Amino acid sequence: MGKVRINNMLVYTYNGVLGEEKVLGQKLELDIELTLPMSEAGKNDDLTKTISYADVYTDVKTYLESQSFDLIEAVTYHVLDLLGEKYGEQLTHALVRVRKYHVPIPGFFDNVEVEMERDY
């Protein structure tokens, strides 16, 4: 087994509970970790034996730019659904983290993060 990771992926979305968040939008940051067999891809230098991280990036970005959710929990859940639908035959496991930086609550912190994982 091996892992493909996309770290700190930025997507501009219109997610959030507050109306302003859905109108003005904001950046979300994602980490995506995919676990899958990689021996054949590595041994034979064959992209068809692995998952293209370029395709994953494009699929997730396109999906999130066309959707609107209230919660980053929902964003995380539906990204895992998308990964399963598109790559489930190759995947054994996926982990997704979604970070939101501009959270409309008082206090001092860098971000809020939700993490979910799923076996396929």
From TrEMBL:
Single annotated GO MF: dihydroneopterin aldolase activity
UniProt-listed InterPro entries: Dihydroneopterin_aldolase, FolB_dom, GTP-CH-I_C/QueF
User: Gene Ontology terms, cellular component aspect?
Assistant: cytoplasm
> For this protein, what reaction is catalysed?
7,8-dihydroneopterin = 6-hydroxymethyl-7,8-dihydropterin + glycolaldehyde
Pathway the protein acts in: Cofactor biosynthesis; tetrahydrofolate biosynthesis; 2-amino-4-hydroxy-6-hydroxymethyl-7,8-dihydropteridine diphosphate from 7,8-dihydroneopterin triphosphate: step 3/4
Role played:
Catalyzes the conversion of 7,8-dihydroneopterin to 6-hydroxymethyl-7,8-dihydropterin.
Classification from the root reads: Bacteria, Bacillati, Bacillota, Bacilli, Lactobacillales
Q: Name one Pfam family in it.
A: FolB
**Which keywords does UniProt give here?**
Folate biosynthesis, Lyase
Q: Output this protein's name.
A: 7,8-dihydroneopterin aldolase
One GO BP on record is: folic acid biosynthetic process
Q: What is its EC number?
A: 4.1.2.25
Q: Which family does it belong to?
A: Belongs to the DHNA family.
Which top EC class is named for this enzyme in its record?
lyase
User: Which species is this record about?
Assistant: Vagococcus penaei
Known CDD domains for this protein?
DHNA_DHNTPE
Q: Which residues form a coiled coil?
A: none
